[in-house]
């Protein structure tokens, strides 16, 4: 193992003593140096504004980090937002690490993890996650590919940075409803209580606004015992209400030192701002996020909790639409599903159903009239089968609502664009087209189950996933990590920096094989480009050839 010398303002660093009493001893070091362990890494970039660190390997296998302190930074000045915490290793290894309380607070006491004395863990061969365990973001590589980006593996650590008796944790839920919210709340409370002996857990009522506008709710295992059987959230939720200064003031005044924030990308963006303000004030407060979005539009992670439940429940609406359509001559069943910017629910529900004839999502533009358009396809399916089922995500086709483009600039309290009901609009357009232009009788039934799906309890699969997310967040916070989101990456629980969760959105790739599977299942046209029929003699129909970027060829 290589030891690394790193400058620090602290005069001592805690080490865990291996004696029988598991006591912590503080061993004095020179005020300019502190030791920590590093395995096989060639470069460490801490990125925290006061220091610019560069690591050099020497032949003696002891590496030194030289750090320069900014001469313009005074002790009273507000530090800038830190850069990502990156560790580079051999073979193109990159660890996008998460912040730790010890990064900005010196002389933190360290405690032994009480899990080693927990009877429930007595059968576990390895109590704690190894300090070097990381999870790769990309697992499909070539033999000469670099090892790529990794994230820190989640789980209990041998050393923790909070005394259980001193912990005052709080939980807040923000944004829209999603199956599994109550399960996450329950497992955070029970994990803190049963695994770490924490007795003081508060619930923030009504989202971010509840930090400064409402009283807290006391939570313990008895209070949350059966809430996982209910939909919604027992803490209440809201959009907006994010006032960073008031929120952090409330955290500080209430003596809260662990904050668990459950919400989507907008909520996690707010959590990142809260973390930065807490770090700026130098508070010993861990901020942990649990990603929540029914649309599955959070990047990096395999999936978000509630997604499996939403796809499963969407089957009921699709089955009902199919029964209605099949029972009438020229019957059309139209189902609107969630998916503001990402069409994952519509895509997976379509693939699972096998009864859907056409699926429309925000990532795949489509058009209504003309050769190869939606109307032509509907007419062909009705002539072939006598009925059809159409699934549309709520964010699809918004650009077609030309008469409502002005309203598309309006946003809700969370900053999301206010969408028009495209499914209702398309329903009316379909009726008008076939009754007036084609003189063809159709029977269209429109089903909107969106809010029914959001409000149901999570299924068994999501319940297990919520448990893993919640317990991983608890382990991370107790170990002193902060400014992270707990998420599943390639089937492993990880700690992901906030900036990776909020920098982009996860969307369906319409040039990917999964979308191709859907097209082969429904036999719908891709709608990538309308065929331009040229009237001039000697001209052929335009090509539908795709470029590498997924756009149509201009030729």
TrEMBL record:
- Positions of the Phosphofructokinase domain: 170-475
What are the subcellular locations of this protein?
Cytoplasm
Indicate the residues that form the catalytic site: 295
Q: Which UniProt keywords apply?
A: Allosteric enzyme, ATP-binding, Cytoplasm, Glycolysis, Kinase, Magnesium, Metal-binding, Nucleotide-binding, Transferase
Name any one Pfam family assigned in the record: PFK
List of residues binding Mg(2+):
265
Q: What is its EC number?
A: 2.7.1.11
Please name the pathway.
Carbohydrate degradation; glycolysis; D-glyceraldehyde 3-phosphate and glycerone phosphate from D-glucose: step 3/4
The EC class name is transferase
| Gene3D superfamilies noted in UniProt | 3.40.50.450
Please describe what this protein does.
Catalyzes the phosphorylation of D-fructose 6-phosphate to fructose 1,6-bisphosphate by ATP, the first committing step of glycolysis.
Q: What is this protein called?
A: ATP-dependent 6-phosphofructokinase
Q: Which organism is it from?
A: Gossypium arboreum (Tree cotton)
């Amino acid at each position: 193992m290589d030891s690394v010398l790193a400058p620090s303002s602290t005069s001592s660093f805690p080490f865990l003593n291996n004696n029988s009493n598991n006591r912590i001893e503080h061993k004095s070091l020179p005020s300019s140096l502190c030791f920590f362990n590093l395995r096989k890494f060639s470069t460490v970039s801490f990125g925290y504004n006061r220091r610019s660190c560069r690591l050099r390997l020497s032949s003696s296998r002891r590496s030194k980090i030289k750090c320069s302190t900014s001469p313009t930074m005074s002790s009273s000045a507000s530090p800038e937002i830190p850069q990502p915490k990156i560790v580079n290793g051999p073979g193109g290894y990159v660890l996008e690490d998460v912040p730790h309380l010890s990064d900005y607070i010196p002389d933190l006491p360290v405690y032994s993890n009480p899990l080693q004395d927990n009877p429930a863990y007595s059968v576990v061969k390895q109590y704690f996650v190894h300090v070097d365990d990381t999870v790769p973001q990309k697992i499909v590589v070539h033999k000469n590919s670099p090892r790529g980006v990794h994230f820190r593996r989640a789980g209990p650590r041998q050393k923790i940075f909070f005394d259980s008796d001193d912990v005052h944790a709080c939980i807040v839920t923000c944004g829209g409803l999603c199956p599994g919210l109550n399960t996450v709340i329950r497992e955070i409370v029970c994990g803190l209580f049963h695994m770490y002996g924490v007795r003081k857990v508060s619930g923030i009522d009504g989202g971010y606004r509840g930090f400064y506008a409402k009283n807290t709710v006391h939570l313990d295992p008895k209070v949350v015992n059966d809430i996982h059987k209910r939909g919604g959230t027992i803490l209440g939720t809201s959009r907006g209400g994010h006032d960073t200064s008031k929120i952090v003031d409330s955290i500080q005044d209430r003596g809260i030192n662990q904050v668990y924030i459950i919400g989507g990308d907008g909520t996690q963006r707010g959590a990142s701002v809260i973390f930065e303000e807490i770090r700026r004030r130098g508070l010993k407060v861990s901020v942990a996020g649990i990603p929540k979005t029914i649309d599955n539009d959070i990047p990096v992670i395999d999936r978000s909790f509630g997604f499996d439940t939403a796809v499963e429940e969407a089957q009921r609406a699709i089955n009902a639409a199919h029964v209605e359509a099949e029972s009438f001559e020229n019957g059309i069943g139209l189902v609107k599903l969630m998916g503001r910017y990402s069409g994952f629910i519509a895509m997976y529900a379509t693939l699972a159903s096998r009864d859907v004839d056409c699926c429309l999502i925000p990532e795949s533009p489509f058009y209504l009239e003309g050769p190869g358009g939606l109307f032509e396809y509907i007419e062909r399916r009705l002539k072939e089968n006598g009925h059809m089922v159409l699934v549309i995500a709520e964010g699809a086709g918004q650009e077609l609502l030309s008469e409502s483009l002005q309203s598309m600039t309006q946003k809700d309290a969370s900053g999301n664009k206010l969408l028009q009901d495209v499914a209702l609009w398309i329903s009316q357009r379909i009726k008008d087209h076939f009754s007036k232009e084609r003189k063809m009788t159709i029977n269209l039934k429109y089903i909107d189950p969106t809010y029914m799906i959001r409000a149901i309890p999570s299924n068994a699969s999501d319940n297990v996933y919520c448990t893993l997310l919640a317990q991983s967040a608890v382990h991370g916070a107790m170990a002193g990590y902060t400014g992270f989101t707990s998420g599943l990456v390639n089937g492993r629980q990880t700690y992901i920096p906030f900036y990776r969760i909020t920098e982009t959105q996860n969307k369906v790739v319409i040039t990917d094989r999964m979308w191709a599977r859907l097209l082969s299942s429904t036999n719908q046209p891709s709608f990538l480009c309308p065929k331009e029929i040229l009237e001039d003699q000697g001209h052929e129909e335009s090509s539908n050839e795709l470029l590498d970027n997924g756009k149509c060829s201009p030729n």
